[in-house]
Amino acid sequence: MATDHEAPPAYTADAALARLKEGNARFLRGEARFPTVQKEVLADLARGQSPYATILGCSDSRVPPELVFDAGFGELFVVRVAGNVLGASILGTLQYAASHLHTSLFVVLGHEGCGAVKAALASKFEGATHKSRIEVLLESILPALDGVDPKLAPDALLSCAVEANVRNTVEALLATPEARARLGEGAMRLVGAVYDIESGRVRFLE
Q1: Using CA atoms, how far apart are residues 163 and 109, in angstroms rounded to an integer?
Q2: I want to staple 72 with a disulfide (CB 3.0 to 4.6 A). Which of 12, 34, 101, 108 is the partner?
Q3: Closest CA to 80 of 49, 102, 111
Q4: Given this model, what pLDDT does residue 114 score?
Q5: 83 near 120, Cβ under 8 Å?
Q6: Which residues are registered as beta bridge partners of 188?
Q7: pLDDT at 11
Q8: What distance in Å separates the CA atoms of residue 179 and residue 190, rounded to the nearest whole number?
Q9: Are 51 and 101 in contact (CB under 8 A)?
Q10: How confident is the model at residue 9 (pLDDT cuts 50, 70, 90)?
Q11: What's the DSSP call for residue 144?
């Protein structure tokens, strides 16, 4: 998340977060603003992008950030990977968002019922095994599960693990020198959130 000083972000982190919350509220009310996109809008966006927030979310097909936050084309810079985990390419993409697109708000968006987190729980507490590349993915989730109570009921355990995984990713991002530098400059805000796939509501974590 390196930064340069070419231009200030179009939105402050607080304003961007408010836009996400307002968009999710419209989504919940069934009042989404962008059922279609006019050709003029696409032509304008072809000249460049200026998203107001960067979202690191899960690849789950039920959690499309643009719809969840009622955001139009060009408004969100979205990175999606199973389990909303980090890796070299993910960090590079986030750094691009900070240094070239100047988004000041970064959101790690997990979701209830996450299959990747469920698989990690099975690995940790049941000795389950998975295909080799999936195992590599789960290695990024397992550290987040150290504090969860395996005696919880299955649904509660998964919900607790989902939130723990989001917080773990946020903490890992906060530990990078690029993020520390941007936070020190007051140029970035990083928050975690969990999407409820049944209600459509996004819960932002403190």
Answers
A1: 10
A2: 34
A3: 111
A4: 98
A5: yes
A6: none
A7: 81
A8: 9
A9: yes
A10: low
A11: G
pLDDT digits (tens, 9 = 90+) for 136-194: 999 999 999 999 999 999 999 999 999 999 999 999 999 999 898 888 888 889 999 99
CATH numbers and ranges of domains, the chain:
13-113+170-204 (3.40.1050.10)
How remote is the C-alpha of 126 from its chain's centroid?
Answer: 28
Cβ–Cβ < 8 Å for 131, 155: no
What token pair was written down for 190? 């990083």
CA 110 to chain centre: 6
Distance CA 135, CA 142 (A): 10
Question: What is residue 186's predicted lDDT score, i.e. its pLDDT?
Answer: 83
**Token pair of 123 as six digits:** 């690995």
Angle formed at CA 180 by CA 174 and CA 183, multiple of 5 degrees = 100
CB atoms within 10 A of CB 58: 26
Closest CA to 11 of 92, 94, 108, 101: 101
Model pLDDT, residue 6: 54
Q: Looking at residue 184, what is its pLDDT?
A: 85
- Euclidean distance between CA atoms 115 and 60, whole angstroms: 8
Strand bridging mode 76-80 / 53-57: parallel
